[in-house]
Structure formats: C-alpha cells, structure tokens
Amino acid sequence: MTIPRTNDDFTPDWLTAALHSNRRLPMMTIVKSLTPERIGQGRGFAGSIRRLNVSYSGDSEMPHTIVAKSPSADLKIRDYAIRDGMYQRETMFYRELATESGIPVPDCYFADLDPDFGDFVLLLEDLIALEEGDEIAGCSLAQAALVVRSLARLHARWWNDGGVAGLDWLGGDADTPTGTKTLQARYQDAWGRTTDTLADIYAPELFMIADKFGDGLSAVLEASASGNQTLNHGDCHLGNLFFRDDEVVFTDWQNVMVTSPALDIAYFIQGSLPVETRRSHERELLDIYLSTLRENGVTGYSPDQLIEDYRRGLLRTLIPSVLSVANLDMETPQARELVQTISGRMIGIADWDCDDLIPN
C-alpha cells in the first residue's frame, strides 16, 4: 500500500484498504467519508499527527475518530528521525511488542513502514477523552507515583529477556563498541554546534558536566550495558502520557530501547517534577519503583544498584537534550519554552554528582 504523506493522501479508499487489510473493518463495510485535521503542533517534533474524522457505510466497531501518525513534513527533522531509526522502532513496536508490553498503550489499528524510503504510518486509538500530560506544568506527586509503578511493571515484564534484546530493529546501548563511539561523536558534534545556546540555558554546574560528558559518553553507555537490561520506553516525559482514573497510557514509542532499567525512571522523575518537589520526594519514588519491581517478580536488584543506575540515567538525559537542540525545530515559542523548562529541571544531574561517573 502507498503510505500517505499529506492530508490529501488520507482518502476514504486508502483508509478502507488499510482497515480491511487486517480485518479491523468488515469487508462489507467501507469508509464513506474522512476529514483529516492536524493536531499536536509544537509537540510532536519528529512526526506529523492528524485526527481522522471518519464515517462508515455500515455497522463497525471502529471508532469515528482515529489518530494518524506519519513522518514530519520538515525534511531536516524527517531525515534525522529516519537516520536514528525512530520511525522503524515505533512501527515495529506496535507490530510486535505493544500487546505484550505489560502497560497500557494506544490500540493500533494499522502500522506500515517503507524500509526503502523510511516513511511510515500508524493508525492509533484517539485518547482525546483522557487527561493529557503537560511538560511545562509538570505533574502531581500522585501522578508521578502512578507513572513510576507503570514503568516498573514494564521493566519487570522484560527484565533480562534475551528475546527482546535480540530484536535487530530494537538495538540497545552497546550493540558494538563502534555504536557507542558513533553516538559519542554525534554528541560531540551537536555540543559544538549548540554550546553558545546551551550556555544560556543550562545552569553553570550543569554546563560543565555536559561539556565533560562529551569525552566519556561511550564509557557511560558501556557501563549501562554491563548490568541488568530491560525494555525502556526511552522518551518518558509527560507529553507522551495520558491519564485516566488509576492508570496511565504511554504513547510515542520512537525511542524504545533495551538498556539499564533506571533510564526511564531518571528521565521521567527529573523532567516531570519541579526541582524542589523532586528533591523532597525522589527517594520515595525510587522506593516505589523498587518495591513494584519486586512485586512483579524481579529479584537480586539492590537499592544501591538502583541508585547507581539512576545516577547514570540522569547523566544520559544530556544526550536527547543536546541532540534535540542541535537537530530539531527549536524556533517555535512552544519549543523554546519547553527546552528552557526541562533544562532547568536537569539540575538533578548536578544534585547527584553525576560527573563522578564520567571517566577522567
């Protein structure tokens, strides 16, 4: 099937064929009308998101609104996402792992990928009725605890699972020493191009750690890969989370990876709570994470090991921060406000003396 790129490409005939292909829509029923509308502007930096308003010719269990996700219209962002494997990872996650993930994710009605050109399309459950997380405002402590418990269930489900670690589309931190060196070189290049910008955004003590990290990134990743490994969401921030009652739905799996268990926890806790709230309740949330791991069958993971992994995870949040500023669209007011807010919260890296983990 042709993968749609623009509003005009999302036609009733195309959607009918897509939903017939996996029997989501009865063969005797067709899509009668379809109206796409862009949503998520200023949020989905690496992709285009549309809500499809749909009517059908007959009875169907399919909803009348569907969220369609496709490549960014910005060629620079699209090329970056393809080069990084983001579109492939998310498509394959929904094809192969979503229903077994152990946590709530959007229902996926259709997933297609063009391996030659990197284009993709996902048709997903519309979560409009749920409470959407707000990265700028942050979340409540109760919501943070809910997310931490959910992440613990995800991590416990795939704890040291050789099958998921062997998926060639998924990868991990240190598939090869060359891979970690390549990422280190990308970080150093991005740092060189954004030093002036980040000097105005990062706190001085954070800026010094970020500068030092450029020479030790590879060693930090290799250390992360030497211990317990599990499936991580990889981009666990509030903009990718939707809340309903006593559960949270995780979206945007473009950075899913196999790595040290505390990466998601570090990324989420540091980026989602005001600094003073984090400082006051951080260890409480880590205790919740560890106890939930144990409730779900994980053994032999000590509090000391969790703290070491957490500190290393905090340090690694510098990677998406620096690469995003260098490669994605930071010209919109929303993007600038987001970068400044999250960068201010990244002082956790200095609070935990994470520079001690960087080899001299």
Features:
360 residues, alpha+beta, Phosphorylase Kinase, domain 1, Aminoglycoside 3'-phosphotransferase, Chain: A, domain 2, 2 domains, five-stranded antiparallel β-sheet, three-stranded antiparallel β-sheet, 47% helix
By secondary-structure content and strand pairing, the structural class works out as: alpha+beta
Termini distance? 52 Å
- Would you identify the CATH architecture of the largest domain? Alpha-Beta Complex
Q: How many strands, what sense, and barrel or not for the largest sheet?
A: 5 strands, antiparallel
CATH topology of the largest domain, what is it called?
Answer: Aminoglycoside 3'-phosphotransferase, Chain: A, domain 2
What is the general shape?
globular
Strand adjacency order, main sheet: 1-2-3-5-4
The tally of domains stands at 2
Alpha-carbon Rg, integer: 20 Å
Ranges with pLDDT <50 over ≥5 residues?
none
Please identify the oligomeric state.
single chain
Number of strands: 10
Topology of this structure?
Blueprint: H1 12-21, E1 31-39, E2 47-56, E3 65-71, H2 75-83, H3 86-96, E4 108-113, E5 120-125, E6 131-132, H4 141-157, H5 162-165, H6 177-201, H7 204-224, E7 230-232, E8 241-244, E9 247-250, E10 257-259, H8 263-272, H9 275-295, H10 303-316, H11 318-327, H12 333-345, H13 348-351
Antiparallel strand pairs: 1-2, 2-3, 3-5, 4-5, 6-8, 7-10, 8-9
Helix pairs in contact: 4-8, 4-9, 6-7, 6-11, 7-10, 8-10
